[in-house]
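pasting for the record
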Amino acid sequence: MLNVLSMCRRYTSMRFVFSFLVLTTLVACSSSTSKPLPSDEGSILKGKSFTYSRYKELPDFPVSTAANFRSGILDIASAVTSGNKMLKNAAIEDPAVTIAKSLSARIEKRFGMHLQANDSLYIRSKKTNNVIKKYNDVDYVLDVRTLNWSASYIPNDWDNYRVTYSVQARLINVDTGLVVSEEVCTHTPDYADSNQAPTYQALEHGTALSDEIDKSVAFCVDHISKLALFHAQQNKSELLKTLQ
């Protein structure tokens, strides 16, 4: 009897994983590509002005729980409703803005560019033409956008949850409309012991959710700055090491 129950639970867990992957794929679908900053672009950036974008709307934050997972099929509406409510109660703001500010500091230091932040200016469309039209008073726009975020319980451990976050960063030349650098980062924490992951109650309380998102922000700032070549480098040999 116990073996039957165990098999049923594994089967249900597998069906959940499939359902949740379908959900996150629909939310995060993107044609983004990885594009490091060209070596000759760095010298052109010196002394140029730039700003970072802010988006008016965020993607939904689905949270899968036993309550919204019935008959092996995820109740997407319930997952989105509970997740968005969790964000609102915890007063979680767009992590992409924090990432943009950190990347901006690195860009200023590396290339000698001048940041002209405008935190009151928001955009709705991710299309390049719309971005540069909105921020047309600078030379470059650092467009950082949250692609997807979600939380789901860990397979075989329905009491603890894993938060996943994805973000895209683009450096756009306003004059030419060209994306000179682009990188996407996805962070999903890996726990040696699933009990180290937060519970639903801890995420709902707010502090644990903020902590998990902060981990994703720190990871993606380093990931993007290294692969997009925004981080400070002293010489050509260090650049070659980064590309290897």
